[in-house]
TrEMBL record:
Protein topology in the membrane: Multi-pass membrane protein
Membrane-crossing residue ranges in chain numbering: 6-25, 37-58, 64-89
GO cellular component: plasma membrane
Keywords: Cell membrane, Membrane, Transmembrane, Transmembrane helix
Subcellular location: Cell membrane
Annotated protein name in UniProt: CidA/LrgA family protein
PANTHER family for the chain: HOLIN-LIKE PROTEIN CIDA-RELATED, INTEGRAL MEMBRANE PROTEIN YXZK-RELATED
Amino acid sequence: MLHLPIPGSIIGLFLLFIALILKICPLTWIETGAELLLAYLPLVFIPATVGVMNYPHLFAGSGVMLLFIVMVSTLIVMIAAGCTSQWLANRAQQRKEKKMCQEHLSQ
């Protein structure tokens, strides 16, 4: 409707993220739905796997290259996720220490 070059699902996730940050939408609403979706997430990948198995000739010539790409991209994602979670944990710890320090000083 807006003719944006971004898929609607990405826009929706961005709007949900903003709603969560601004506390417009309580986290408990999202948690219930997310738990249900995560329980059935493996079923989403079955059609893609079957589709790949139906067309082996598309991947026959580049099997080693695809394996290398999958391994490298998985490694990059793991490193990025680990660094991000470590950064967020450190940031949360700093906030907690700052809050405790302010409470101690106010007494």
